[in-house]
Records
---
Amino acid sequence: MTMKHLFTILFLSLFSVCFSQQKTEIYIIGNIHDSVPNYHPQILFEILDKVKPDLLLHEVDSEAMKDYVGQKNIKGNENLASKLYIKKYPNTLRFPFDFEGRNQYRKDKGMVPTDNLTVQLIDSLYKAKQLKPSEIKIYEEFDGLTKQLMKLAEMSPENFNNFKTDKICEKRQNCQYHELLKIVEKRPEFSNRFVTKPNGEKISYKDGYKLMSDFWDLRNHTMAINIYKIAEKSPGKKIVVLTGFLHRYYLIQQLNKLNKGNYEIKEFYE
C-alpha cells in the first residue's frame, strides 16, 4: 500500500467519524406517567443519566411547559426525573412537543368526556350480552390487548420500550380508535346519548368519539412534526423524547418517514 493510498484511507475514515458525530440521536422513551414500584422517577433519571441527552422533550404544550420550568405542580415520572437531571446537568434544554392547547381543545370539541363514556357504554353492553358476535370479537380483542399491555407495564422499562411491544400498542390503539368506532357508528345507543360542551351545545357519544378517533392521528402527526423541527435545529445533539409508551410506535413511524438521514433513532438500552 502506497503512502498516498494510506493517506486517502485515513482521511476517509476521519471524515466518516466526523460525519457520524454530527448526526443527531433521538431516543424515544415510552413512559408510565405515574410512579409505580417498577417505574418511578429515580429509574427514569438513571436512564437519562446513562444517555446524557442535550435536550429533553416533554409530552406537554407550551403552557404546561411553563409549569415544568417554573417548578409548579411537580408530579409525574417525566417531570420529576427531568428535574433531577437538570439539577445535575443545568445546561440541558427542555422543550414541549405536544399538540398546542391539547386538553382544552378536546373539551371544547366534545371529545372529552365522550371518549371514556363511550368505552364504558360498550363495556356495559358487552357485560349485558347485548353486543352482536362481530362486536363482541372487536371488544374482546381490544380488552385482551389492553390487559396484555398492562402486564408489560408491570415489568422493567425495556419491556415496554421495544419493537414487539410497539406492535401490540399499535394494534391496541387501532382497536380503540378505529375498530370500536365501527360499533359506535352502527348502534343507536351512541347516537341517543349526549354530553354538553363548554359552549352549551350538545354532542352525541357517537360524534364525540369520532372526533377523538380522528384526533389520535392528528395529535401524533403533530407531535412527530414538532420533534422533527427541533431535531433539525439541533444537529449533532442527543435528544430524549419523553412520551407515554402508547404513543411510541406512532412517533417512531412518523419520524422514520420524515427522516432525511440527519438523525438516528436509538434505544436507551443499546
---
Amino acid sequence: MVGAAQGSRRTVTRSVDRRWLVTGAGGMLGTDLLAVLADRDVTGLTRADLDVTDAAATLAAVEGVDVVVNASAYTRVDDAESDEPAAYAVNALGARNLAAATATHGAMLVQLSTDYVFDGTATSPYRESEPVHPVSAYGRTKAEGERLAREADPTGTRIVRTAWLYGQHGGNFAKTMLRLAAERDTVEVVTDQVGQPTWTMDLARQIVRMIDVDAPAGIYHGTSAGQASWFDFARAVFELGGNDPDRVKPTESARFVRPAPRPSYSVLGHDAWLEAGVEPQRDWRDALAAAFSTGALEAQ
C-alpha cells in the first residue's frame, strides 16, 4: 500500500503545483535554485536550519513536500582526507536520510553528486552508467551517497553529478581569477586537468526542467557541454573580464601538491538527458559569457 501511495503522489501532482524543498539553500547552487523557483512553492533550508545527518529531523522536514533537492554537502575536498567520517556523515548518511524521507512521504529526491566519483583516468567523456572508482575521501563519500540514496528510494531518486561550479554566491575559481587579475601581473594555472566549467544558474534551471518534464529516476550529468582545462577557463575569465588573457601562464598540477588527488579528466557525457527528452546544458563558453552579461561574477 505504501508503494502505491508513493507512485500516485509522484505522478499526479502537476509540475507547477509541486512543493519544493532545497537543502543547503545557503550555498552557491542552493541560492540559485531558490531564485529559479521564486514563483513556485519552495522552502529553502540552510545547514543551520536542517542537519541532514539527523534522520528524525530530516524525516519531519520532508513531510508535505513533493520535490527535495539536496544541495547540502561536505565539500572541503582536502580536509576530507584527514576527516573522512565527517564528510561521510553529510555526504553519505545525509543523502540516505533524505532518500528514506522521500520514500516515506512519496516525494522525489534530486541528489547532487560530483565528478570525483570517477578516478579521472578516462580519455573520453564518462557515461552515466560508467562504474564509479573514487580515489579521494571526498569522492568515496559522495559515491556512497549516490548508492545509499538509490538504495533507500530507487524509484524516487535522481542523481545529478556536477563539477567545476562557479556562480554569483560564494567563492569559486572564476571569482578567484578576477581577484588575481586585479592583484597580480600574471597568474599560473594548470593545463593538465580537464573538465567542464558549469554555471550554477544553468544547473539550477536544468534541475527544475528535469522535474517539470518528469524525467525518470536515474543518473544524470549536470555539467556544461564542451571541455576546457583550468588554464583555458582562466583565460576565458580574464578575457571576458576585460583583462589580457596572455597574463595567464601555463603550468602543471605537479607544482601544486594537495592532500586529495584531483581527477585529471573530468569530462562527463550527457546521454541521459537526451534519452529523457531534455536538452543538455549549453557550451561552457556560452554559459560563462551569460554569467558575465548578467553581472553574476561582479564583486559583491
---
Amino acid sequence: MRGIALLGLVVALAASLPAAAQSPDAFWRGKQVRFILGAAPGQDYDTWARLLARHWPRHIPGNPTLVIENMPGAGHIIATNYLYNKAPRDGSAIGMVTRNIPNAAVMHISGVMYDPQKFGWIGSPEKVNRGCFAMAGAAVQRAEDLFSKELIVGGTGAGSSVSETPMLLKNLLGMRFKLVEGYVKPQDAVLAMERGELEGICFTVQSLEQARPGWIAAGKVRVLFTLEHERVPMTKAPVIFDFVTDEAQRKVLDFYSSSIEMGRPILAPPDVPPERLAALRRSFDQTMADPEFRAEAASLKLEIGAETGEALQKIVAQAMAMPQDVVARAQSMTQGEFRSP
C-alpha cells in the first residue's frame, strides 16, 4: 500500500510540475499538438502536412496527435503572424508556411509582424524547383517569347511567389507577363489554365506535377525556365539567369531565388524550450527516414528531399544579412503596379 501511495504521489507531483520543467515525453504524452498551416485544404502544403500528421507522432516523445488547422491568407503571412504573436510557446503548436516567409520580412512586406530569426526552424520534407509555365496553345512557348509576346498568368496575392515571380520578372527583365489576381490557391489557377481562362503560371515544378501529373512530359504545358542557377534535368528548360544583362539584375535574382532552398519549412513559435525544439527536430529527421512514411510519400508521388532545422536556420540568417540596396530593389520590383525595367 505504501508503494502504491508513493507511486501516486510521484505521478501527482509530475503532473503538477510547471510545463517548462517537464521532459519532452511527459509534456507531449496524451496531448494534441496544433499544426498550423498557411495554406488552404487541397494545396500541396496541405498534402504534405496531413502526410506528416499520420507518421511524425510515432517519433515525437510522448506520441502526441498532430491536428491540422488550415489558416490561409496573405501569402501565408496570417498563419506566420499567428505563430509568432499568438500561438503558445511551449511546443503545443507548430506550423508549416511558405518558403517566402523570410524574404517577406527582409523586404518589409505589408502585414509582416514577425522576426524570422526568432522562430525555431524544425525542417523541410521537400526541396522544390520554381519555374514559369505556359500552356501549349499560348503565344508564348519559349522564354525568349516573353520579350515580345504577352503571357496571361494567375496570381494568389501579395507575398506569394505565384504573384511575385511574374511581377519581379516583368519589372526587372522586361518579360511581358500579365498578372490576373484573385485565385485562392495555385491549383485554382491551374484549373483556370485548363479552362482556357489563363495561359500560364509561375509555380513549383513539383506542385504542377502533383496537380496535373504528366502535363510536362506530354507537352501540354511548357516549362519556360526555372529560377535556379543550374538547370533542372527533368525540365530540360533554361534558367532565368540565362537572361540577365547586368550584375545588378543577377544580385536581385540571387536574393529572390534564395528562398527556394527553404523547401516547405516547418517551424515552432519563438521561445519553445530548447530540449523540446531539439526533440521536434530530431523526431522530424527520423520521420524522413521512416520506411512507412517514405512508402506513403511515394504512393502520393511526393519526392522527399529533406532539410534539417539547423540548415533552415542558417538560410534564414543569410537572408536577413542581405545588403539593403539589393533588398530594396527586389522589394520595389515585387510590390505595387508593374513598372518598366
---
Amino acid sequence: MKLSAFKFCKHNKNYLLKIFDYTKVPNNEKKFIIKGKYGRSFYQCKLCKHIYSSHAFSIQNLYSQQYLELTYKNLNGIKKRFKNVTNLPINKSDNKNRAIRVDSFFKEKKLKLLDVGSGIGVFLHEMKKKKWDVSGIEMDKRYVDFCKKIKKLNVHKKKLEQFKKKKNFDLVTFNKVLEHVANPIKLFKLSTKFLKKDGIVYIEVPDIKAKTQGKFRQEFCVDHLHIFSPESLNYLADVCGFQTLQIKRIHEPSGKFTLFGFFKKKSNKLS
C-alpha cells in the first residue's frame, strides 16, 4: 500500500483497512486526462476513522487547466455559475449557509477575513455583503482575474507560504481545501502567520459519514486525498497547535456530508 495522502494520525499503518477500490473511471467523475493506468483506493483507520487515498497515477496536474475547463469551460461559464449560485435561496445554498454560520460565530462585526482557495469567490462575495473586510488566495490566475476584475474582490494569485501580509486577520478560512492537499498539517500550521492574537481558523472538509452512501459519492472523488472524522479533524487541530472550539456535522443543501469547525491557537498554558 502506497498512500497519496500524508498519514497524519498517530495510529500504526496496520490499522488501515481498504474500504473502496476503483479500477476504472466512475461515470460521475470529471474526465481528467490521466497518464498511466487508472487505479485508486481509499483506506480507513480503524481507530480514528480517518480515510486516506491511494493513487496508481500522478494527480499533480489535476488542478492545472483541466479542473477549470472541465467544471466551467471558460470565463463565460464562470460568470454563469457565479450568477446561478449567488441567486440560490438560502435553503438551497451551501455558501449562504456557510456565510451565516461564520458571521454568527462572531460578536464583533466588520472583521478581517483571509479565505484560502477562494475559487470563483462566492463565499467572499457573501461575506463582503455582511460587511467583512475580505481577502482571498487562489492559485488559478483565471479565477483571480474573475474575482478581482469582474467582482472587485481582493484576491491574490499566491501560495499561502508566499503571501506577504499587510495586516493580520481575525479569521482564516479553509473551505473544502484541506482534503485536496497531501499534507494538511503544513497548510493548517501556516495560518498562524496571518492570525491576530485571538484569531480563529474555520475549516470545512468532507465527512466520513458519506461512506454509508457508497463509493460513488462526490466526497470520494479522484482529487480528494483525505476524508475526515470528527476525531481526526480534532487531532489535526491539536498537532497544529490549535484548540478546538467547535466541530459539527452537517448535511448541506447540495447533499454533501460535511464537517465544519472553529479553532483557536493554543495559549502557552494549553500548549
